[in-house]
Amino acid sequence: MSSSLVSEGEILRILGLVLVGCLLSVAGGVANASPQVLDKKFSNCSALNKVYPGGVAKAKNWKNKGGEIKNTPSVNAKVYAENQSKDRDKDGIACEN
User: Fold this and answer.
1) Is there a smaller number of Cβ atoms within 10 Å at the N or the C end of the chain?
2) Looking at residue 26, what is its pLDDT?
3) Model's pTM, two decimal places?
4) 63 and 30 inside one domain
């Protein structure tokens, strides 16, 4: 007569919980992933604002000179460099709105 500490049903239950935990962690990582647009030159501010609703700042210490803005700019020096011509007031934020 053999005695085991954990029954077969308990092992299956534990494996099921581990599997569910793994699936949730993978799904959470996908849901939190942000779109990556690197070095993209947009044709105009409308196109840029579809991806970056607040525009794109070249540095985190941006200061808006163009008046009130509705959305906070994303900071991405590479995207800003590609779209610097769209920074009309030369404040370090392209296409702020």
Assistant:
1) N
2) 60
3) 0.60
4) no
- Mean pLDDT lowest among 7-11, 28-32, 51-55: 28-32
Residue 25 confidence class, pLDDT cut points 50, 70, 90? low
Long-range pairs of 68-73 with CB within 8 A, sequence gap ≥ 24: 69/96, 69/97, 70/97, 71/97
Classify residue 71: in a domain, yes or no: yes
Considering the chain, what is the average pLDDT of its residues?
82
Task: Give me 52's structure tokens.
Answer: 């970056």
Residue range of the domain that includes 83: 45-94
Number of domain units in the chain: 2
DSSP 25-92: HHHHHHHTPPP---SPPPSSHHHHHHHSTT-EESSTT----SS--SSPPEE-HHHHHHTGGG-TT-SS
